[in-house]
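User: I've been trying to design a sequence by hand for this structure and keep getting stuck. Would you show me what you'd pick, starting by listing the structure so we're on the same page?

Assistant: Good idea, let's start from the same input. This is the structure you sent:
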């Protein structure tokens, strides 16, 4: 069975590099437990985001 699991996190722009290091360090553990791959994406800084947009 194929499926996609995703997460939406609020990461301040000033913490982006710290978060990316954490995600990179965690990837091997997720792969050990069955993840085929991990992908990080970011909203554009000019995006009109609001809680109700989800």
């Amino acid at each position: 069975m194929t499926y996609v699991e995703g997460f939406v996190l609020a990461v301040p722009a000033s913490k982006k590099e710290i978060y990316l290091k954490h995600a990179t360090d965690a990837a091997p553990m997720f792969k050990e437990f069955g993840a085929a791959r991990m992908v990080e994406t970011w909203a554009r800084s000019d995006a009109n985001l609001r809680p109700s947009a989800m």
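That's my pick for every position. To get oriented when you compare it with your attempt: The mean pLDDT is 84. DSSP finds one helix and no strands in the chain.
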